[in-house]
Amino acid sequence: MNYRKETISKTCRKFLLFMMLHSLLSCTDQGCKYVTVSEEPYIAYCKNQDDIVYKDDRFIFNKDIEKLHSGAMEFIKIGEDSLAKVQLEGALEIEPTNPILLNDLGNLEERTKDFERAISLFKEAIKSSDSIYFPAEYNLADLYAILGEQEKAEFHYNHIIKKHRNDFLNGLAYRGLAEMYIDYGYQGKAKEMIIKAKESMENYSDFVSNFNVLEKRIDDYN
């Protein structure tokens, strides 16, 4: 299979980007403020360097699941992935179709390189939320891109754009496409996606540096 050369580093970075961490990390902890991207439904993010805390009030935990999920996040912080899995799987026994739990366990399985199970969990999260829970489909698209499955990755990035019609979420999807095309050597396509991403996220200035990095990669390639 044609893995992208930065598979390990990108997988770890994405794990930080789209784990649902609002139960563990507050804005104060992250040193940044939440930025609202949608009032109804309420969606917001908090960005600090490469980390994004994603909030969507349509998806919440009860107290029992909150405790297990928080425990899993604590284990992840100290590198105890197997113990984190136990916590997340325990939470899924209580609520088997919770898309946050399915997505987070998928991220953990990807981190430990069980890509087949990660894909299955992301798909379950997408299905259980009727494609509404954005991180699961983004993570699935990103994993397909890492594994060299270009058509599948494109399908899911583009489905995000069609489904959500939200500038911020669309911008992240365009950014994912741009990064994939850079990795595959399609610099022309990458430039087109960066333009679309920047247009979609023109009101989110904290992402400017991310686009600068991608543009520099294109310049270096040329």
UniProtKB/TrEMBL annotation:
Gene3D superfamilies per UniProt: Tetratricopeptide repeat domain
Pfam families xrefs: TPR_8
Swiss-Prot/TrEMBL TPR repeat ranges: 99-132
Record key words, sorted: TPR repeat
TM regions (residue ranges): none
SUPFAM superfamilies (UniProt xref): TPR-like (SSF48452)
Name of the featured protein: Uncharacterized protein
Lineage of origin: Bacteria, Pseudomonadati, Bacteroidota, Flavobacteriia, Flavobacteriales
